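A quick aside before the break. I want you to see a complete sequence-to-structure record at least once, exactly as it would be stored in a machine-readable document. Don't worry about memorizing anything.
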Amino acid sequence: FSTQRRSHVVLITDGQVGNEEAVLQSVSGHALPVHCFGIDHAVNEAFLRQLAGRQRGTSVFLTPNDDLVRPMAILGSRLCRPVLTQLEFDGDGPSWCQQGLRSFVAGGTP
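That is the input. The structure line, written in tokens, reads:
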């Protein structure tokens, strides 16, 4: 792990997960963004969107014939260009402040 950059998880899957709730519970509480790439004709989009959303990541859905290189390059480009990092908030603030959001990347949203 880099001590200078925030860690991220990139999950490339067919989205066929049998223990969805256990996966969601295992990552909850960790300030680790999860970026999901679902590749198949029958991806479990609802689960992957929920996982990425809870962890402040992104989700992309492709078929086996689609090009994975371009979406991966876009994600890599965004993650390499932080706009604001190590944010700290005083007071209550908006709900997304209370969920551990500490950085913004180019092209990203809170």
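Two observations worth writing down. DSSP finds three helices and five strands in the chain. The longest strand covers residues 34-39. We'll return to this after the break.
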